[in-house]
Amino acid sequence: MNTIYLDNGATSWPKAPTVASTMASFITEEAVNIGRGGYDRAYETAGRIDECREKLGAFFGAPEDRNVTFSLNVTHALNTLIAGLFTKDDHVLVSGMEHNAVMRPLSHLDIPYSIIPCDREGRIHLEQIPHLINGKTKAIIMTQASNVTGTIQPIKELSSIAGKYGLLFLIDAAQLPLSNPLSIIEDNLDAIAFTGHKSLLGPQGVGGLVLSDRLAKEVKPWACGGTGSKSDLLEMPDFLPDKFEAGTQNLPGIIGLSAALDFIKDNSESIIKNEYETTELLLSYFLSDKRIQVIGPKDMKDRTSVISVDFPTLDNARIAYELFLDAGIETRVGLHCAPVAHKTIGTFPRGTLRFSPGYATTKQEILRTIESCKRVLDRL
């Protein structure tokens, strides 16, 4: 069956064109470890890892390349931040659109939090923030863009508020849109937790943190082990990036991500343009069909390519299944690991059906999706 992939909110597919071949070449010809061996291939591999670190540092406006540290994914990175910064005696603020990658660590560690209200389209109520701050509040932890509604939050305004009240500002950039880049320096952020396999078009299994100099000193590592440096000590090194890179990293994944970043650098304008046009076309149809309710922003302002919809008189899971049977349309239905967000927008526990075009989605695929939606709804 020919398929139409509209689940880029979960992971990008296809990956950037050079990712697979670059990773395969590395694995078959050069996949030695770094920071361990004292021979040419080990040094060359270390250089390639540093090249990716340098690219990410430039992409995210890091103070220095060493302020970029690698992890398994954005969830792992967020756990490093939350476990390494806060205790039961602290208090943090989160938005009403957060993913479980933020909410579960806070709950697991019994860290007190307050939820900043958002409206039914996922936009944060900035004016409510001062009322939620107390003497124990240390940080705002915030998703840049919702994985449920695609809503992009006003990061610069939030950064200003955090600075005014002396709070750390930590960003979950899992759904980072290329049209709205983030910068540690320019946006005055303390940390960006990122993943490589979504908008950055790299493979699964690699993500990381970009840290301000201030935060790099404050966060305590929760994963400890060998780094290839300071091996005479039983404590983790206190310098970056080694402080947060215990054990062997996903070197093939980092090499693949590096190739993806090159592709993005050369094609960012066309990627942004295509995602905007395909998303706008699909959103316009959803808004025009009275049988469908768009959950989230109703226009293209301050949104990503993620579109959530509800079929009020039908079962969303049944619609997802029928769309796949009818035209091979691949989507995601349910709560999207974000029950807090669904409670905010009024779709808990029912959930929504999520469509998320990507850089490779074509206009023809969107038109086929629209026709399939019409056929399925006419039939049910």
Summarize the structure.
The protein is α/β, with parallel strands linked by helices and 380 residues long.
Quick tags:
alpha/beta, Aspartate Aminotransferase, domain 1, Aspartate Aminotransferase, domain 2, seven-stranded mixed β-sheet, four-stranded antiparallel β-sheet
Task: Write up this protein.
The protein has helices at 19-29, 40-59, 74-85, 100-108, 129-132, 155-164, 213-218, 251-288, 316-327, 339-345, 363-379, and strands at residues 4-5, 68-71, 91-95, 113-116, 137-143, 168-172, 191-195, 207-211, 293-295, 307-310, 329-330, 332-334, 352-355. Helix 4 (100-108) links the parallel strand 3 (91-95) and strand 4 (113-116). 47% of the residues are buried. The model has no long low-confidence stretch (mean pLDDT 97). With 380 residues, the chain is α/β, with parallel strands linked by helices. The protein starts with a strand and ends with a helix. Helices cover 38% and strands 14% of the residues. Strands 2-8-7-6-5-3-4 form a 7-stranded mixed β-sheet, sandwiched between helices. A 4-stranded antiparallel β-sheet has the order 9-10-13-12, with helices on one face. Strands 1-11 form a two-stranded parallel sheet.
